[in-house]
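Much of our argument rests on the idea that a fold can be written as discrete symbols. The record that follows shows the chain in one-letter code together with its fold in token form.
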Amino acid sequence: MGDPAGVGPEIILKALAEGEWQKDSIPLILGDEGVMDFYATLLDLEVPIVAVKEEDVVSLEPMDKGAYLLPLTRLSSIQFAPGRSTPYCGEAVVRYIKKAVSLALEGKIAAMVTAPINKASMHAAGYSYPGHTEFLAELTGCDDYAMMLVGGRIKVSLVTIHVPLKEVPRLVTRDEVFRVARLTCRCMRDWFGLESFKVAVAGLNPHAGEEGAFGDEEERVIAPAVEALQREGYPVSGPFPADTLFHRHAQREFDAVVAMYHDQGLIPVKLEAFDSGVNLTLGLPIIRTSVDHGTALDISGKGAASPNSIKAAYALALELANRKSEVKGSQRSRRSEEQQL
């Protein structure tokens, strides 16, 4: 559900009200029944929400409209209000995330889609994680993960994320470029099901350094990482000047791009799919997608938030979950055939 004070409940309700987006799946909200009822009344949205117990999750049946809800908190009007960050909301968010990860790891849910969280409320509740991704990595015991943004024609992974720009050159190392590009390749193969694909790596400096005239990170750090990946058989090339690379990507010359820093990668995504971008976490043992926007506390409860990103995040999670299920089914079939032989 995301932060109860943010736009998470609103965009979920709006998406559910449209009906068709969750076709051929069983949406389950992890959150607060009272909060969802509050927003439904406030925004005059009639959406069937059926509360269930955790033991019932694995036996849920598809619904024509609406969603199931697993109640994990009961926030009072003192603890929660639209647009107001509180430690109670931060504590609630942590509870929702922990339970979703637990259900995913146990195989009780096929994928996890996260509405936006508010870092300030989490910090006020005593949790110092920079965001969803780092918290999810700890909960799943994963130390090799990365962020990919998906929007329209653009798929871009980030070597550095939420750090000051002045720190980026120090953090762009050969090992990090290698690691993120490798995760990107594995995602294209294992999650997106591509047997043949191309991944491009962006340079850090203008014109990719122009042979050292504008910086040497390309020659000293990025190119060696690309060469190491190529020696291991990964279809990676670069570094390329970022100012032309995303045009080439949009023209389908490449299937994904590895960017060096936050804005280098997110500006093309926002331009291509401003309100429908999706955040996909690579490397986790579970499928996790998220909206590509924040809690927007300034407009929470006003009916102005767009549900497009949560719809796109759900659709991508469903696509990846279905492909994972198909792969597992194919593997079981092959094992059965081998046993018969």
Summary: The chain has a mean pLDDT of 92. The CA atoms of residues 113 and 161 lie 20 Å apart. Residues 153-272 form a domain with the Isopropylmalate Dehydrogenase fold (CATH 3.40.718.10).
